[in-house]
Amino acid sequence: MNTASQTIQSNSALSLLSIVTLTFFGYVAIGLPLAVLPTYVDSGLGFGVVWAGITISAQYVATVISRAQVGRLCDRYGPRRSVFLGFFAYGLCGALTLASALVSGVPALSLALLLAGRLALGVGESLVSTAAITWAIGLMGARETVRIISWNGIATYGGIALAAPFGAWLEGQYGFFAMGAVTIGLAIAGLMLAQTRPPVPGVKEKGIGTGQVLSRIAPFGVALALASSGFGVVMAFVALFFHNRGWDGASLALSAFGLAFMGVRLGLAQAVARFGGLPLARVSLVLEIIGLLALALAPSPTVAIIGAALAGAGFAPIFPALGNEAMARIPSQNRGVALGLYSVFLDVALGSTGPIAGLLADRFGYTAPFLLGVGAVLLSLGLIMSLRKSSSL
Smaller CB count within 10 Å for the chain: N or C? Predict the structure, then answer.
């Protein structure tokens, strides 16, 4: 019996790994240009820092706008179709990026092609990331939601972390057009892998309306958005904070945050099964607050690095733990829409935290962004405390 159980668990892990690899391919494509795209638009094409920011942001705008539509597509036709369409969108992004590099002598045309590619990339992200989670849940069952979302998150952040330095090296060796060529290669690899996975059929029965789905997940989404502010300020301002203090080791702080995040995610499913999603989220938010306060008030770089690690460990359970609670309130016919809408709260939070925290940093110094994060996470904790009282609904 033990051998049979171990075999089942091994097959389950391999099945999940094959699905989250789709997410990994997608986020490698997203991470590749992050270190070089702003400089390419600013200096290479000569459009300045404002257009560099617009070019980066175009992807996230497309992702946010398309989330709910992608969810409906997953629910109606099954997630494999969405994954195929997503990797076609990644391939289109790669082709447009190649074309942009080839016509760099005509800067306006090159920028237009690059912007179109970024929009395609954003739609591809929405399609693949939402559908991969839905696909895995369809194959493995709703009881595995926490593990699926946790592994998917590791694939997401791991893909970006590995791709950004690789993209910088690639551009230095072969030029910007290499971004497009490798993106096309990743799209082909994703399509080939998706073709080997068993399909999950769409649900023909009519579920509840999108408005009802949103109303059921909104409290969890708002709590997620507030908690994500802590993540946003660490990612955006740790390097500037260390530089302002005259400290070395900003990269170690970011690494500590990322390693703690991934370490907690690996063992998260058992913790949620034992303690429950909302109680675990409550404890995690307290840990995130402690980490952010340690960063903001750090007397030395060592304390700041420890604070970053605590913040990463505290933030790690929030998306899967709250997502599991939210999905439990949604009919299976609306799972894709619910995942898409739930993810929008994270997208919007990460997109808005940087500018708001930047204004505070400009006026009050580089401690202010972390104190903003503390305040937002405290609000999230208060909201989750109220949800805990009504968790049986």
Answer: N
